[in-house]
Write a structure and sequence with these properties.
479 residues; alpha+beta; seven-stranded antiparallel beta sheet; 29% strand
């Protein structure tokens, strides 16, 4: 049993030191950069700070203990002020495991304990424990939650075999990276990094000296730009492979267990009763080739750990296979392709909103860049096309006790909300919407990272009222 106080593995002290160093890197750099010219004072101060961080990390590890006693996970910590945290097992929503580069060489895992009241941070984190200890805690938690189940039911539950719902394939992993927008993130990060050195690197002089070469070597420059994009794609690909390799979804009893990662292995456990909403996301590229991604919104998790509240369930999957996977693993949700669309008179408002954004931008670019500003007209055209597809995507439907809202910003998003999980539904009407008998519907559910849900703009006002009436408390609408 685990009733005796235990310490984390000593590697946890290293983790404490690295975390504190990361949080203190800016003050240390300020001391190093803005110290005196001889550099002796800031050197001694820097050494002193690092020494304090090392000592603090070791003492923090020594003063941290955990144990299981009387149906609670009891944690004691604190260097000067001793803190005691008792977490009853019935409050624990999930135990998430991960193996980082510090834990893996020693056969350890990091355990994150989430409860329904987790806010900015997880309820507790055991930075480095053995896999055997992690399994013991999971087993004790499972036994505690099943204590009320009759013996026959418990035996039946224990005999249930786990079911693999999804396992990513190598081709899907490459497709996931290629269509995720990671290339743009990498390029933006490079430009943002280089912009920090604008005062050090003489960009103008470099560009002036290269201007003759550039005008005479258009093909070479084009090739270099192409190779730059290929490199960015490769970086994004490697990042996706490391993060999503071996992505597997298993259904074990009344829980979904998601494992993923190559360099850092992660395991998320999501109880089915904690699922608040289902979200299907289709960016333009994936939609064009018939693929989508599926997310779960969970009541567990914390604001700082969005992965435990907004959970990627199916990273990339053929659109026509989603129904089979969802209805097998989440039989509370019924997928549909039948939607009530926005009325035709709403199209004009979608187009006007697109013009309201794009025309001022085009005018400014034309004024300042003359001929080159004509390319801004392409932006106006693209916004008109996007506005039309936003109108086409807008829709809603109700299936029993389930509300489905579909909309588009750039990606098309379909949100499935069960009535008993929906926290609020609101109806909004602007002055111009009232003139056209249109309204906006907004439905929200609660998740670990805050409110989640969907909004659809410019629906028929009678449709919005019918949704509102469906949600209102009446005996025939309750479960």
């Amino acid at each position: 049993m685990m009733s005796e106080p235990r310490r984390l593995h000593p590697i946890a002290a290293v983790s404490n030191v690295l975390k504190t160093l990361k949080d203190s890197i800016i003050p240390i750099l300020i001391i190093v950069v803005f110290g005196n010219s001889e550099g002796k004072i800031q050197l001694f101060i820097t050494i002193g700070i690092i020494a304090l961080i090392l000592i603090s990390g070791i003492l923090t590890w020594l003063r941290f203990t955990y144990r299981i006693e009387e149906g609670e996970l009891r944690i004691e910590s604190g260097l000067i002020i001793r803190k005691k945290r008792y977490i009853p097992f019935e409050r624990i929503q999930s135990l998430d495991l991960s193996e980082g580069i510090l834990q893996r060489p020693f056969g350890l895992v990091k355990m994150t304990i989430e409860t329904a009241s987790s806010g900015l941070e997880a309820e507790a984190i055991l930075t480095a424990i053995s896999k055997n200890e992690a399994q013991q805690i999971q087993d004790i938690l499972s036994q505690s939650k099943n204590a009320h189940i009759e013996l026959d039911e418990q035996i039946e539950t224990e005999q249930k075999e786990e079911q693999i719902l999804y396992q990513i394939k190598p081709g899907e992993l490459i497709l996931l990276s290629s269509t995720s927008g990671g290339v743009g993130v990498v390029i933006s990060a490079v430009f943002a990094f280089l912009s920090q050195f604008a005062e050090v690197i003489p960009y103008e002089k470099v560009f002036d000296e290269l201007s003759v070469f550039i005008t005479g070597g258009v093909m070479l420059i084009s090739l270099m730009v192409f190779l730059g994009f290929v490199l960015a794609w490769l970086i994004a690909l490697i990042g996706s492979v490391l993060k999503y390799a071996n992505f597997t979804v298993r259904k074990v009893g009344e829980e979904l267990v998601i494992t993923r990662g190559l360099l850092e292995k992660k395991q998320l456990t999501i109880p089915l009763h904690r699922i608040q909403a289902l979200r299907i996301n289709e960016n333009p590229v994936r939609q064009a080739i018939g693929y989508a991604s599926v997310y779960l919104e969970s009541a567990g998790g914390s604001l700082k750990d969005a992965d435990s509240s907004k959970v990627m369930l199916l990273p990339i999957i053929k659109r026509n296979r989603i129904r089979e996977k969802i209805e097998t693993g989440l039989n509370d949700y019924q997928l549909t392709d039948m939607f009530v669309p926005a009325p035709k008179r709403a199209l004009r408002r979608y187009i006007l909103r697109g013009l309201f954004i794009s025309v001022p931008v085009a005018v400014i670019l034309l004024y300042f860049f003359s001929v080159w500003g004509l390319f801004s007209l392409v932006f106006v055209g693209l916004m008109l096309i996007l506005s039309y597809y936003r109108y086409k995507a807008a829709g809603w439907t109700i299936i029993g006790n389930q509300l489905v809202l579909r909309s588009r910003f750039i990606s098309k998003t379909t949100v499935y909300l069960r009535k008993n999980r929906t926290q609020s539904i609101s109806m909004k009407e602007t002055y111009f919407q009232k003139q056209n008998q249109l309204a906006t519907i907004s439905a929200k559910a609660m998740s670990g990272s805050g409110a989640t849900g969907g909004d659809v703009v410019d629906l028929e006002v009678e449709d919005v009222l019918s949704i509102y009436k469906w949600y209102s408390y009446t005996p025939e609408n309750t479960e």
